[in-house]
Specification:
Structural class: alpha/beta
Number of helices: 12
Order of helices and strands: HHEHEHEEHEEEEEHHHHEHHEH
Radius of gyration: 21 Å
Number of strands: 11
Bound molecules: pyridoxal-5'-phosphate
Length: 387
């Protein structure tokens, strides 16, 4: 079986884990945590970076930082991971789901203004597959209506909107280092803070609502309970693992981009025939090769291809189910139809994608996708994507 994902080890992980353990301090905010923070702040210009135990935790910190309260409305795509939504619902927010755009699963920025009300507090753009949302017009709207922008950059390490790194554009942003991401630490994440106003409070929330980080730096003579918070910081062991990955970021990105291009070249003829769609990268966005997905013409055909690939030893998978139709939220949703989101839920397939995927394996997968379309009887006309 070709797995969907295989965590890649760069080789230095065990050495750094050993060093972290040997340092005598393996809890949070240790040497490797600080090395990771410096790496991110220097390379991408984030005002402040704080490692968290997951991308989910980073989103929860963001919701606390912007003081989400019952009755506040938060605009986000319905085509996203549950954590994007849960973080705000946990604090009492009402979610206003935006539909995806035609060419990518990202939220359609042109449609957001109609969703803004006096209760709107924030917009949460999710950069799907590490490809930027159209942040220019989104920021213009946010400024005009004085809304917070929280980027869900879980999949967006080393990706850009024009010349701005993703995660450096919104007031706050959340990254994930879950084992399926480009750089990993098993579970793990990071909150980035780009608005000075939030820097000090973020550190307090990160450390259980105490000013312990200031105490460690000798800025206060005792540490105290000063705000709400939780245990959002990871052990330095997690940071040590992550740092080994970060040192090899260039190599990881180069290999993943090579794999991505290989899929793209190999499947282009099928796109030209009109039987499937390949990922679209808008002119303002870069491609960080986080995932490779294809879009089929109907849900039925998507399910048939998934079955065919799985029967042939290829663990291809679908992705998000529309959150506005989820068992938890459908009766809280305002009832608007979000047909593009449903289309991506029904028709998208993620192909196996990881550093160590070989050229031969990619060719095998491309051949199997071709075989499916030559041996099955594909629909004669392209169904509308809104069907
Ligand atoms: C878009 C998005 N947001 C948030 C998360 C949550 O990240 P984590 O799994 O690190 O909690 C993920 C994880 O896959 C994600 O894809």
């Amino acid at each position: 079986m070709i797995p969907f994902n295989k965590p890649y080890l760069t080789g230095k992980e065990f050495q750094y884990l050993y060093e972290a353990v040997n340092s005598g301090k393996i809890s949070g905010n240790g040497i490797f945590t600080r090395k990771c923070h410096c790496f991110f702040e220097e390379r991408y210009g984030f005002k402040k970076a704080l490692l968290t135990t997951s991308g989910t935790d980073a989103l929860e910190m963001a919701a606390i930082l912007i003081d989400i309260k019952p009755g506040d409305e938060v605009i986000m795509p319905s085509f996203t991971f549950v954590s994007t939504a849960n973080a705000f619902v946990l604090r009492g927010a009402r979610l206003i789901f935006a539909d995806s755009e035609e060419k990518t699963p990202n939220l359609d920025v042109q449609k957001i203004e109609d969703l803004i009300t006096p209760n709107t507090k924030a917009i949460v753009p999710v950069h799907y597959a590490g490809v930027a949302c159209d942040m220019g017009p989104l920021l213009e709207l946010a400024n005009r209506y004085q809304l917070f922008v929280i980027e869900d950059a879980a999949q967006s390490i080393d990706s850009y909107y024009q010349d701005r790194p993703l995660g450096s554009i919104g007031h706050l942003a959340a990254f994930s280092f879950h084992e399926t991401k480009n750089v990993i630490s098993g579970e793990g994440g990071m909150l980035t803070i780009n608005d000075e106003r939030f820097c000090q409070r973020a550190e307090i929330i990160w450390e259980k609502g105490t000013n312990r980080a200031q105490f460690s730096r000798g800025e206060v003579d005792k540490y105290n309970w000063v705000d709400i918070g939780s245990s959002f910081l990871p052990a330095d062991i997690t940071a040590a693992f992550l740092y080994a990955q970060l040192e090899n970021l260039e190599d990881i990105q180069q290999k993943r981009k090579k794999n991505w291009e290989h899929y793209h070249e190999g499947l282009k003829p099928l796109e030209e025939k009109g039987v499937l769609r390949l990922p679209y990268i808008p002119g303002f966005a870069t491609n960080n090769a986080h995932m490779f997905y294809i879009i089929l013409r109907s849900g039925e055909e998507r399910d048939q291809l998934l079955k065919f690939l799985n029967e042939n030893g290829i663990n291809a998978v679908f992705h998000y189910l529309s959150l506005h139709k989820s068992p938890f939220y459908h009766d809280k949703h305002d009832g608007r139809e979000l047909s593009r989101c449903d289309f991506y839920s029904d028709c998208l397939i993620r192909l196996p994608f990881y550093y160590e995927l070989s050229s031969e394996q990619i060719d095998f997968i491309i051949n199997k996708v071709n075989e499916f379309f030559s041996s099955h009887h594909p629909l004669s006309t392209c169904e509308s994507e809104n069907s």
